[in-house]
Amino acid sequence: MSRRTITRRTFLGFSGGALTLYGLNKFGVEEAIAAAIPGGTLLPSAIPKFVTPLVQPPAMHTVNPNVYSIAVRQFAQQILPVGLPATTVWSYGSTTPNGVFHYPAFTIEATRGTATTVTWINGLVDPSGNFLPHLLPVDPTLHVANPPGGVGGRDSRPTFTTTPGRYTGPVPIVTHVHGMERVEDWSDGYAEAWFLPADPNIPAEFAREGTWYNFFRTKASSAGVPPWGPGQAIFKYPNSQRPSTAWYHDHTLGMTRLNVYAGPAGFYLIRSNDPADNPTVAGTGGAAAVLPGPAASQGGPGPFYEIPVAIQDRSFNTNGSLFYPDTRAFFDGFVGPYIPDSDVSPIWNPEFFGNCIVANGKTWPFLDVEPRRYRFRLLNGCQSRFLLLRFDDPKVDVWQIGAEGGFLRAPVKVNDILMGPAERADIIVDFGTVKFGKTVILRNMGPDSPFAGGGFRPADPQSTGLVMQFRVNQTLASADTTTPPAALVMPNLPALPGGPARPLALLELESAALPIPIEARLGTFDTTVGLPGGIQFLKWEDPETETPAAGSSEVWELYNFTADAHPIHVHEVLFEVVNRQRLDKQTGLPIQAPVPPGPTEDGRKDTVIAYPGEVTRVRITFGPGGQYVWHCHIVEHEDNEMMRPYRIGGPQDGQPA
């Protein structure tokens, strides 16, 4: 089959079905019994469930107010229950004397209108200062950071004459605050602005920084930021947006899936003291609403009623180590030949689904709660897994009040919460109607396989179908005076302006000789031509095709010609979902009437689910000029060509070629 066809899980072979299933009670979930999926040598059945308390991340320590010095380091943490081995991970932590390193990292608290400055340090060295190799198998055949290539070969797809093994050199990092609006490009965590640790023993021929690092260092200096030292970068975040739930994680070219799987991620919460930015109480003439709180990251002795929860899937070996596949054969049984005897990468897996669920750095934890309302800021931090979350007690009332970009236009009572990778959901959960002493389990009804919108078998109910347990066993510390969610009036949110349409394509590339996928791709789509001639497959290295003017608005149309749903993330902006529309299988053009976004999407977002066989439209207003990216947040896809640079405004003087 030609490499320019739309492949295996192809749009042309996409099995029909109704247009996107927005009402979460409409999902076509097969009730068949699922089994645990493969993973490392430690079976999920050997891990006790609900025996470890949920960690509530406190605030990241500051150097000065709103000024941080944060490193990535390697350490051991008890992720599995006590009695099982500790796990070696990486994560962020403050370099101040009282700094703590934890996976996930402690929370950065920010205030709207007050900028935050962070010195990000690559601390992936041993006690003697020598670089540490990666914990996980790095496939050097991808378009990757490639420090061994030197200045001339960095950020490239190397050529090999024999099938290579895993890369074992120093690890590059660059941190992205996911959901930060109007951030300057030099602070966004551009995938080619990575840097190695400051180890003098790194071979002289290695590139120590990515292609864009020095250009951004110069821009930062011009903006008044202190000089960047070796093995670090200093970023500044404007925090100009409404109160929202952002998060920070690594974003290195071709290695994001592995760097983040190793642990570096944390919440970044933006709050506002302006009453206009916060909910009020219906029927009171604008009296301020009271949401459940405080959070541990806001300080104080507790108890805490606002809790961020990062949900991730992982797999483990019996020695406690993280498991991640070191061969393509794990995904589909293909054992070769690999590069250079075929076009198949030897290690990269098109998707990965861990067989254990980890919440805030613990496998299947529990939380003791009072019979009252709690606020949970949920993050789907999984690699490829879509979550469909459900509390197993129907007496528990659940309301969603926010998404990635802050509060929704109205609170929404929900039964299930659908979250693609990188999406967030801000919810209020009322345990007040649950009988005292009872337990409630948060379950995952999503699939153990790629998500397409419906007709799937739910996750294994004994492992990946479980998230955490709530024990309603604490007496009220004080009366619950929070505002009932039904009475919340959300802050006004004007619609973003419209603009010209920009049709874009979500694609998959098949091997030239074998019926297996070898890359995920993005591209452009000429709607005046349709399928197949209107598609242009693009790589990371191809020139930017999306170049909106600073301050302009556009409608990006995401045509999904694959059989998977893709969570699409656009850096630097918060957008609005406009609608979705089904596509004709022959022409690829829209048919049927557009369907508006569901109520849990009625707000600002930074990540949107683009369903197969549909066009998903989002309305975007762009901020300051600069170099950014947009990509699929199935990180296995992102790392193998499903990421594209885009530029706001014209080329910058002196930018890398």
Itemize the secondary structure elements and their pairings.
Blueprint: E1 67-77, E2 87-94, E3 105-111, E4 116-122, H1 150-153, E5 175-178, H2 213-222, E6 232-237, E7 244-250, H3 256-261, E8 265-271, E9 280-281, E10 306-316, E11 322-323, H4 329-332, E12 356-359, E13 362-363, E14 366-369, E15 373-380, E16 387-391, E17 397-403, E18 406-413, E19 416-419, E20 424-430, E21 439-444, E22 466-472, E23 488-489, E24 501-510, E25 517-525, E26 535-538, E27 553-560, E28 566-570, E29 576-582, E30 607-610, E31 614-621, E32 626-632, H5 635-638, E33 643-648
Structural features, described:
This protein is mainly β and 657 residues long. It folds into 3 domains: 24-42 and 315-489, Immunoglobulin-like (Sandwich), CATH 2.60.40; 67-273, Immunoglobulin-like; 501-648, Cupredoxins -  blue copper proteins (Immunoglobulin-like), CATH 2.60.40.420. It is 4% helix and 31% strand. The chain contains 5 helices and 33 strands. It has helices at residues 150-153, 213-222, 256-261, 329-332, 635-638, and strands spanning 67-77, 87-94, 105-111, 116-122, 175-178, 232-237, 244-250, 265-271, 280-281, 306-316, 322-323, 356-359, 362-363, 366-369, 373-380, 387-391, 397-403, 406-413, 416-419, 424-430, 439-444, 466-472, 488-489, 501-510, 517-525, 535-538, 553-560, 566-570, 576-582, 607-610, 614-621, 626-632, 643-648. The strands form 7 sheets. Strands 10, 11, 12, 13, 15, 17, 18 and 20 form an 8-stranded mixed beta sheet that branches. The chain has a 6-stranded mixed beta sheet with strand order 26-25-24-27-31-29, with no helix packed on it. A hairpin with a 6-residue loop joins strand 24 and strand 25 (517-525). It is globular.
